[in-house]
Amino acid sequence: MEPAALAAELHAAKPPVILCAAFSVLYRSKRIPHAIEAGPGSKPEGIALLKKAVADLPKDADIVLYCGCCPMVKCPNIRPAYRALREMGFQHVRVLNIPANMHEDWFGKGYPSEEGSPANGSMPGTK
Q1: Are strands 62-66 and 17-20 parallel, antiparallel or unpaired?
Q2: Contacts with 2 (C-beta within 8 Å, 6 or more apart), sequence order
Q3: Of 19, 26, 111, 118, which is the most exposed, with the fewest CB atoms less than 10 Å away?
């Protein structure tokens, strides 16, 4: 999905569940509002965190997955995280299209974001 479409959906009555499959340092510095830390998808501990993050979600939950550490075509985290979600039976998983990186394709365009910190960098609730 394109960044502008997700930015619009953030204001919907029922926005999607947003999962960040990026490295923790990126998640904790700045992220899409209400994103849940669920990565890095390239590491077994990241997939374990992903599974924990979605454990209480219904299989038909509307999920948007993003990373943004680098161009999406080279991202080591998105594909394993997406595959794990599909293998777990989640039906409606979309991936945020990040052609370059989060700074350029999301934050630099003024889309909604929230600052992170070690104090609030832990996994927020899913609802």
Answers
A1: parallel
A2: 97
A3: 118
CATH number of the 3-111 domain: 3.40.250.10
Residue type, 102: M
Cβ(81)–Cβ(50) below 8 Å: yes
What are the extents of the domains in the chain?
Answer: 3-111
**79 secondary structure, DSSP code:** H
Q: Given the structure tokens 């889309």, which residue do they identify? A: 111
What are the phi and psi torsion angles at 84 (to 5°)? -60, -45
Residue labelled with tokens 């700074």: 103
Report the number of secondary-structure helices (H) and strands (E) in the chain.
5, 6
What is the per-residue pLDDT across 29-56, written as a single tens digit (0 to 9) for each? 999 999 999 989 999 999 999 999 999 9
pLDDT of residue 117: 66
Q: Is the whole-model pTM more than 0.85?
A: yes
